Amino acid sequence: MSKKILLLEDDTILAETLEDLLTHRGYRVDRVGDGARALEATFANTYDLLLLDVNVPGVDGFSFLQQMRESGDSTPALFLSARTDIDSIAKGFEIGGDDYLKKPFDFDELLIRIEAILRKAYQTRNDEIALGEFLYSITKDELYKNGRFIHLPPSDLRIVRTLFKHRDSTVHKEALLEVLGDGEHGSEGALRVHISRLRKLGLPIETIKGIGYRLAES
4-121 maps to which CATH number? Predict the structure, then answer.
């Protein structure tokens, strides 16, 4: 399943163009035109990246991200803004933005920056993470075993994505329960079923008793 992007942009023509560009590139895009609708979207969905215009109706892009960060949400964010003054750029980074692209911008540059931000979120400079016979593609959001694509249900893929993203540490079961429920807490029994199913594929998932799970060293 491809990466999911929330696009906050009130310029309809630009928003439609970006949606077409990103969809063609393989991303899934939710497009909204004001900050209030963007906040509603984050309540109902989990995103891999936030693309944010600043000057939008209602809750502006800066205020939107500030609310997200204050709530503990660390989803990577890239500002797309006509505000080119240094104070606005500084504010974008100070409130938790990962990048800031001035309008008008080159679409190829935008794609390069998006891919760089996604790789950074997985603490790697590469698009793929290898673990023994397994390979996880960050931009494609796909898992391979010995070069062969493995089709996974969305819930299993969310767990795989989280484990690979935090592959050097233990992921607390509470975090996985939230991922499993896509925003709503699932049950520990259901989580164990998903982990068991992934282990049957050969994924080296260790149980850290009383804490959670982690990917074992190959």
Answer: 3.40.50.2300
User: Pseudo-torsion of CA 206, 208, 209, 211, nearest 10°?
Assistant: -130
Mean pLDDT over the full length of the chain: 90
Taking the C-alpha atoms of residue 31 and residue 47, their distance in angstroms, rounded to an integer, is: 12
Strand partners for 80: 101
Residue 153: how many other CB atoms lie within 10 Å: 11
Cis peptide before 104 (omega within 30 of 0): yes
CB 177 within 8 A of CB 191: yes
**Coil, strand, or helix at residue 4?**
strand
Q: Where are the alpha helices (DSSP H) in 45-165?
A: 61-70, 86-94, 107-121, 154-165
Contact status, residue 101 vs residue 113, Cβ threshold 8 Å: yes
- Output the CA torsion sign for 115, 120, 121, 127: positive
* Rounded Cα–Cα distance for residues 32 and 11 (Å): 10
For residues 160 and 194, give the distance between their C-alpha atoms in angstroms, rounded to a whole number: 10
Mean local confidence (pLDDT), 107-135: 88
Topology adopted by domain 128-215 = Arc Repressor Mutant, subunit A (1.10.10)
- Residue intervals of the chain classified under CATH 1.10.10.10 are 128-215
Taking only the tens place, the pLDDT of each residue in 96-117 is 999 999 999 999 999 999 999 9
Query: What radius of gyration, in Å, describes the C-alpha atoms of the chain?
Result: 18
In this predicted structure, the answer to whether residue 1 has a pLDDT above a threshold of 80 is no
